[in-house]
Amino acid sequence: TTTTTTTTTTTTTTTTTTVDVCVGVTCQAGACHEAGVCDSSTGLCSKPPKPDGTSCTTSGPCDVSSCQAGLCTVTSLAPNCCGNNVCEVGENCNSCSSDCESKTGGGPSCGNGVCEVADGEDCRNCPADCAGKRNGKKS
């Protein structure tokens, strides 16, 4: 009796290719964060915050803003700023009509030193009383 044994060996080779997802990615800086670096496992950029107090710009015309924990935050309003809804000393109907015009008609008491908005006075028809004032009160 003859016995024949056949042995078959199979070899599997696995090749892993690493794809760098950051190729061509440029991390951009923002108003309150630095450019950062690309994370090769996700392709996302880090956004390290700029130091608190770094100046930035918000949408309000009178906003004084700075970076706080990576966000642009209004920290105060600029004084004597056209656009803050207060007709301040130094502003007038010509230089800042959005703050100084009450948008009403004329009034009979112009010249008494009080801006009488209820009577129709505003800085256009009674600048002697209304320049630097809002609704009859000093701004």
Uncertain segments of ≥5 residues (pLDDT<50)? Answer: 135-139
Give a short account of the largest sheet: 3 strands, antiparallel
Termini separation (Å)?
A: 119 Å
Radius of gyration, in Å, reads 34 Å
Mean pLDDT: 78
Kindly estimate the percentage of residues that lie in beta strands according to DSSP.
Answer: 5-15%
- Tell me the number of helical segments per DSSP (H or I, 4 or more residues long): 2
Order of helices and strands: EEEHHEE
Coarse structural class: mainly beta
Q: Tell me, briefly, the overall form.
A: rod-shaped
Widest sheet: strand ordering:
1-2-3
Total beta strand runs = 5
Q: What is the helix content? A: under 10%
Question: Which structural traits does this protein have?
Answer:
139 residues, mainly beta, three-stranded antiparallel beta sheet, two-stranded antiparallel sheet, 2 helices, disordered C terminus
Compact description:
By secondary structure, the chain is mainly beta.
Give a written overview of the molecule.
This protein is mainly β. The chain is 6% helix and 14% strand. The chain has a three-stranded antiparallel sheet with strand order 1-2-3, with no helix packed on it. Strands 4-5 form a two-stranded antiparallel ribbon. The chain is rod-shaped, with a radius of gyration of 34 Å.
